[in-house]
Each structure stands twice: as C-alpha cells, then as structure tokens.
Amino acid sequence: MVFNTSATASSVWLLDLRGAVGPASADYLIRGINEAEQAHADLVVIRIDTPGGLDTAMRDIIKTLIASTVPVASYVAPSGSRAASAGTYIMYASHIAAMAPATNLGAATPVQIASPSLPTAPKPEDDNNNNSKEERNPAKPSNAMEQKLINDAVAYIEGLADLYGRNKAWAVKAVREGASLAAEDALKLRVIDLIAHDVDELLQQLQGRQLTVAGKPLTLNLSDIEIHRYQPDWRNKFLMVITDPNIAYILMMLGIYGLILEAYNPGTLLPGIVGGVSLLLALYAFQVLPVSYAGLALIALGVMLMVAEAFVPSFGVLGLGGLTAFVIGSIILMDTPIPAYQIALPLILSVATASAAVLVFGLAMIMRARKQKLVSGVSILEGQVATVSAMHKGRAMVQLQGELWQVSCESALQLDDSVRVIAAGGVILQVEKL
C-alpha cells in the first residue's frame, strides 16, 4: 500500500504537545488524530515537549495512537525540549519516534513511587553501555502498592516496545531506574528511529519509509507536502482552563460560598446562579483530575464548621476547627505529586486567610451585638417619655414609634399628661405619670 499515488499533495497534519499531559492535551491529540483519519491524511506529526503528566490521560492518547490508521510520528522538538515520563511512553507507542538534537527522553518511573530512598538515576556512561547494567541496581519499592505500580508500568512499556521493535531493555531501565537519554544515544540504542533538526528535515527523511500501520504494510510518499497545522478549538481551550487545578479549586469555592450566600438571602438569585454554575463546572473538572475524596470531604467539613460558627457561636472553636480542616483538605485535594496538577499553596493560603478574615469579622459582629441594647421589639419602648394624645373608652393612649399604644397607669390620666414607659408587654404599655 502506497500513500498518495495520485498527483495531489501529501497531507501532513502537525500537532503540538506542550506542557504536562492532562485531560485537555489528551482531548486535543485524540480529536486531532481522529480528524486527520477522517481527512485521509498521509501522516500526523506530534511535536513534543513535556515533563510528563497524568497516567489516565497518557493511556487514552496511546490507545488512539495504536488504533490509528494514519501513521503518527512523535517528534521531540525544538532543541532543548524533552519527552519525559508520559512523553517516553507516547514515543514508544508511535509508528515513528524522532528527536531534534539537544533533546532528551526517559525518566519514566511512575511518580507515585518517587522517594529519596530510591536509587538515583544511572550515570551518563551507563546509558552508552548498550544496557549491559540495566538489571544491576533496580529500584526497590517500599511497599506492595509501589511494587504493583512499577511492575504495571514495566509491563506496559515492554508491550509498547514490542509494537515497533524498539529497545525493550532500555525501556525497562527508564521505568525501574528513571534513566534518561540524549537524542544521539537514543538513536544508537534503537530507542528512536531518526534525528532531524526541524519538521522539514524530518519529512525528507521519512520519504519512502516503509511502516506497518494497523497491521498493514505502508510506504510513505511525501514528495509533495501540504502541512495542516491543527489548532485547539474553543472546546479544547475551555477544557484547558477549567481543568487547571487552581481554576477548578476557585470554581469550587465560588460555588460553595455562592450557595451559602443564597441560603442566607433567599431570592437574591445572583449568588445562587453563579454558585450553582461554578460548582457544576468544578465537579466536571474534578471527574477528569486526580482528586482525593478525603481532601474534598475535609474541605466540605471545614466550610460547614465555619458556617456553623455563625449559627452556634462557640467563641471560635468551630471556626478554627473548620479552618484547619479546610486548609488540610485543600493541600491534599489533588492526589498526585505532579507539580502541574497540584493546587498552588499561595492560592490555598489566600482563600484560607479570606475565610478566616470573614470568620473573625463575623465573631466580632456577634460579640458586639451581644453587648448592645435591643433595637427591635416592644422592649425598646421601655424608658421612653410620651404624652397622652387620645382617650379611647376611658383608656389613655400615647403615640410612640409612629404608633398609638394603650397604656395602663396606677394614676388617673388625662389628655396631654406626660408619662414614662416602665414596662412593655403585649399591646399595653405600663407607664408612670410624670
């Protein structure tokens, strides 16, 4: 089977994987490859520069790569880029693996088992020894769960290495020891297929290359090339924004406090609408992010305790307990050590400080209100002086606070007599004649 035997130009789709591998980048690459298949593209080139990312997103991308009927070339570029961790797995799963000079790949150990007690990465000279020492100092996980994680990662990358005959021994070393390779060494060890300075040189080297795609032999014909740069659409950009852990965290807090404000002031509508929409967006983001449900529960408990302080004043006990639970829950909310998918500590401290300020302000208002005299109800009439302004059926009436009140007095009262309220109860005021 030969690509582009007609006179039309070869269609090459160019995609970019920049930054951490996550839900947004996975959605972008998967839809890009699928649309390239529908457009009968001759080749898809993915330029890679990533420190790694989430395992679930990486596996979704790899499933699409393996199932693709269009050949995919993963290309670590420009110079200075890397394909670390998840990027290495993606390179192994691609039909063609290429790198620019001064790039590197590797360090594919699952991040969950990273620990100061694990062996350090091998020295550069070990990488040039054709993997003769790959089993000498394997990582030793500290518990059964870590052992399962690393064994699963080893088996996974070994299967990917078998797909296109790449160096399996070094792949295992990259997982067990966190080994890395520069482009030149990767080519020598058959980890990648070629080195190219740019996309144009890459396509020139791929001209006439024979591949196996979806189980069928295939020859690339790239003599006349038309490059289609696939850009993220609004959906992908929106997904990229809301799946940022910091944005998702802010949306969650807006949602919680918006609903609380609506509960305090029913009928306001705006806080409830904003809070409801924000909370739903946050929950959507959390379903594709590595969320710790313990952290989420602690945040909810913390908010409830701080709100309870306003209803059941405990001189700060409930509030401080809620604030502590809130901070701890926020720190452990993202169940991953990957920096790109952790909530920034300054953001957590800012939200916690704002919550504490509101709590302290609320407590101060409560204490001040307890010390003040009553400003509502009939009790506020006690001590006030009034003049008898009317007589109704022999009972004197006075006008206070814009209303007529019946009064009861031990002395006989007449119009224009001055009285002072000594007790207020029901609809009759007890007065004394001045």
Helix content: 40-55%
Classify the secondary structure makeup into a structural class.
Answer: alpha/beta
Span of the ends, CA to CA: 115 Å
CATH superfamily of the largest domain: 2-enoyl-CoA Hydratase, Chain A, domain 1
| pLDDT < 50 stretches | 1-7, 113-136
What's the shape? Answer: elongated
CATH topology of the largest domain: 2-enoyl-CoA Hydratase, Chain A, domain 1
CATH architecture assignment of the largest domain: Alpha-Beta Complex
Domains counted in the coordinates: how many?
3
The run of helices and strands is EHEHEEHEEHHHEHEHEEEHHHHHHEEEEE
Largest sheet: 6 strands, parallel
User: What strand order characterises the main sheet?
Assistant: 8-5-3-2-1-11
Rg estimate, integer Å: 36 Å
Total strand segments: 16
Q: Report the mean per-residue pLDDT as an integer.
A: 82
Number of helices: 14
Can you identify the CATH class of the largest domain? Alpha Beta
Percent of residues in β-strands: 15-25%
Key descriptive features of the protein:
3 domains, 16 strands, OB fold (Dihydrolipoamide Acetyltransferase, E2P), five-stranded mixed beta barrel, disordered N terminus, six-stranded parallel β-sheet, alpha/beta, elongated, 2-enoyl-CoA Hydratase, Chain A, domain 1, 434 residues, 14 helices
Would you kindly provide a brief summary of this structure?
It is built from 14 helices and 16 strands. By secondary structure, the protein is α/β, with parallel strands linked by helices.
